[in-house]
Amino acid sequence: MLAVLYASLAALSYGASDYSGAVAAKNTDSTLVTVAAQAASLATLALILVLFPEDQRALVDLAWGALGGLAAAVGLVAFYRALAIGPMSTAASTTSLLSAVVPVVVGLALGERPGTITMVGVAVAIPAGVLVSVGGTVFRRERIALSPREHVTSRRGEGETRALSIVAGLCFGLFFIALSRVSPDAGLFPLVGARGASITALALFITLRKGWAPIAGDSRRSIVVAGVLDCAANSCYLLALGEGSFVWVAAITSMSPVSTVLLARIRLHELMTRTQILGIAGAILAVVLVSVGAEL
To answer: Most buried of 19, 37, 164, 233, CB within 10 angstroms?
Structure first.
């Protein structure tokens, strides 16, 4: 039961971090927001490790964390690019689906066998996250005559979006997998490697494209909040892995869009679609099923 709580808190924190990052990105480039938020996350992590030092600091755990961090950095760049060229519904749904399915498949391949009720909860959790992700994306196809060349360009854009979304989903899934391979006694130490690697990769990307720019003053608070919540989410995810099965911990954690949508509804008064409400109901059902299954 404790693992379910940690995984649920990880999902809520990831989603809240994404919301804060999105608010900050309204006035500042999204890649700059990401690298700054991850720097805030690393600073928060450093403070925690100073106050509560870890007993075990194995190089292999740091390496697994770094691998996950690099995957996350590549995934973020690909995901933002996919959202930019659209359609956004393709980017959101594909990324959400793969980031949930990949860890589950790998966990099962490695021999984990959760109970029947738990697996039903996992099966409900995956589409729930997809429904919440894609439910708020509304786009219309204008009824205008397109030339053959415009049709080809449109198809190429959709193809590129799909390819980038697949890359993003696989990378986010790899992040969850990499953190699941660290030693049970590693504590939060692997996150140092994860954040160090992702910040380095993103900073290099920004430098190569000459994208460094001042961060807007009204974005700084949201960036710090996003970073602190990101650190909390990663910490809860590792704690959940120490108490429960990777398969269902990853599935529950992947439902982070739920808290993003709820915060948008509460803070920005955005309306939720029926699809999103159905997805949120599915997420609640998934947590209940996994909780029951974990106790049996």
So the answer is: 37
For residues 136 and 260, give the distance between their C-alpha atoms in angstroms, rounded to a whole number.
Answer: 11
Output the CA torsion sign for 162, 163, 167, 173.
positive
The backbone torsions φ and ψ at residue 115, rounded to the nearest 5 degrees and listed phi first, read -65, 170
Which residue pairs, CB below 8 angstroms and at least 24 apart, start in 57-62?
Answer: 57/186, 57/189, 58/183, 58/186, 58/189, 60/183, 61/182, 61/183, 61/186, 61/189, 61/190, 61/193, 62/189, 62/190, 62/192, 62/193
pLDDT at 134 exceeding the cut of 50: yes
Average pLDDT, the chain: 88
The predicted-structure confidence for 278-291, as pLDDT tens digits, reads as follows: 999 999 999 999 99
Tokens matching residue 252: 């529950």
What is the band of 136 on the pLDDT scale with cuts at 50, 70, 90? Answer: low
